[in-house]
Amino acid sequence: MSITTSLAGKTAVITGSTSGIGLGIARELARAGADVVLNSFTDSAEDHALAEAVAAEFGVTARYIRADMSRAEDCRALIGQAGACDILVNNAGIQHVAPVEDFPVAKWDAIIAINLSSAFHTTAAALPKMRAAGWGRVVNIASAHGLTASPFKSAYVSAKHGIVGFSKVVALETAEEPITCNSICPGYVLTPLVEAQIPDQMKTHNMSREDVIKKVMLDRQPSGEFVTVEQIGGTVVFLCSDHAAQITGTAVSVDGGWTAM
Ligand code: NAD
Question: Whose CA is closest to atom 32 on ligand 1?
C-alpha cells in the first residue's frame, strides 16, 4: 500500500476556525490539499474574505459557513451544509476563569455546550457521511486540561476531560472501519483565547502581565515556549494521513512537556 499525506479530494470541516488554532489547522489542511470549510458564529465579510484568502493561497476550495456551536441544531446543520465531510475537526472553544462557587451558571452551560456537546452533534452528523465515503477522520481539539487540571477552570477542565473520553468512545465504535477518532491536547498556544485570559489571571493572581505569562502560563510548560498554531495544524494533518491509520482513540499531547511532569 502506498502511504500518502496528500489530502487532495478530501473535504475538511473545522469548527471555530476564523482565528487562532482553528484557522491554523484549516491552513495546514489546505496546504496538504484538502478543501476546507471555515466556521464561526459571526458571518461577517471578514469571515468570507478569510475563506477566499485560504482558497487563493493554497489552490483549494474554501468556504465559510456560519453556525453557532452552542446550538445543537446549528452543529448538525453545519455538517449538512458542508456536503462532504471526510475530515471533522472539532475545535471551537471558549474559556472562563472563576472559583467554583462564583462560576456563572450561564458560562458553565456555554462552555459545556461549545467545548463538548458540539463535538457530539457534529460527529453524529458526520459519521454517516464518512461511512458512505469509506474513509473518515475525526480530530477533537482538547487541551493539556483534558489530562490535568488547574484551579478556577472547572467548566473548561470538565469539558476537555469529557472530549478526550468522547474521542475514545467514537474510536471504539468505528474501530473496524477506515475511520479514526483522536484528540489533540495542546499546551499553551498564543491565540486570542489565551490573550483574553491574561487580564483575568492578572486579577486572580495579582500579578503583572509578564509574570502571568512566565509564572502562571508557561510555568507548567517545561519547554518554556508557546506551542504554535502551525504545530497543531501539522499534527492534525499527520492524524489524517495514511501513516496514522492505526492511531485511534488516543490523546496526542503537543505541550512542550507539560503533561510529562
Ligand atoms: P480563539 O478564541 O482564537 O478561537 C476560537 C474560535 O472558536 C474562533 O474562531 C471563534 O469564532 C470560535 N467560536 C467561539 N464560540 C463559537 C460558537 N459559539 N460557535 C462557533 N464558533 C465559535 O481560541 P483558540 O485558542 O484558537 O482555541 C481553539 C481551541 O483550542 C479551543 O477548543 C481551545 O479550548 C483549544 N485550546 C487552546 C489552547 C491555547 O493555548 N490557545 C490550548 C489548548 C486548547
Answer: 93
2-16, 22-36, 100-114: least confidently modelled range: 2-16
Decide if 1 is inside a domain.
Answer: no
Q: Judge residue 127's burial from the number of C-beta atoms within 10 Å of its C-beta, 0-12 exposed, 13-18 middle, 19 or more buried.
A: buried
Residues 211 and 85 grouped into a single domain: no
Which atom of ligand 1 is found nearest the CA of 114?
A: 18
Residue 213 lies in a domain: yes
Tell whether ligand 1 has an atom less than 6 A from the beta carbon of residue 18. Answer: yes
CATH number at residue 163: 3.40.50.720
The atom of ligand 1 lying closest to the CA of 90 is: 32
| pTM, to two decimals | 0.94
21 in any annotated domain: yes
Residue 28 lies in a domain: yes
For 135, the grid coordinates are 474513509
Number of domains in the chain: 2
Q: Looking at ligand 1, which atom is closest to the CA of residue 113?
A: 18
What separation in Å is there between the alpha carbon of 15 and the centre of ligand 1? 9
Active site residues: 156
Q: Which domain holds residue 202?
A: 190-226
Q: How far is CA 104 from CA 30, 107, 116, in A?
A: 38, 5, 18
Beta strand 11-14 pairing with 251-254: unpaired
**Is 40 near ligand 1, meaning CB less than 6 Å away?**
yes
**Rounded Cα–Cα distance for residues 253 and 64 (Å):** 29
Q: In this predicted structure, which of 51-60, 149-158, 221-230 has the lowest mean pLDDT?
A: 221-230
Band of residue 5 on the pLDDT scale cut at 50, 70, 90: confident
Mean pLDDT of the chain: 96
Quick one: what percent of the chain has pLDDT higher than 90?
89
